[in-house]
Amino acid sequence: MAKKRTKTAKRPAGIRLHKALRTKGAQEKKTTKRMHPNQDVHAIVPKSINEALILDILGNRNSGTTSGESVLLAQILSGFTKSMRKLSYMAGISNGMFLYRINKLQKRYAWYQDSVKDISEFFEKAGYMASSYDIFPDKVVIKLYGAGPNLGGNMHVFESGVISGFLTAAIGHYVPVSEEECGHAGASYCRFSTSNYKAASDVNEDNLRHINALAKYISDSKPTAKPDTFSKSYLNLIYQVIMEREYLDNMKDLLGYFGEIILQMSNAKKPKKLKGGELASLAQRNINLLNLGKLNIKSANALDAELMFDSSQSRSEFVELAVAFLSGVLGKDMVRAAKLKSENDLYSIRINKKNK
Question: Domain limits of the chain?
Answer without folding.
Answer: 19-215, 254-353
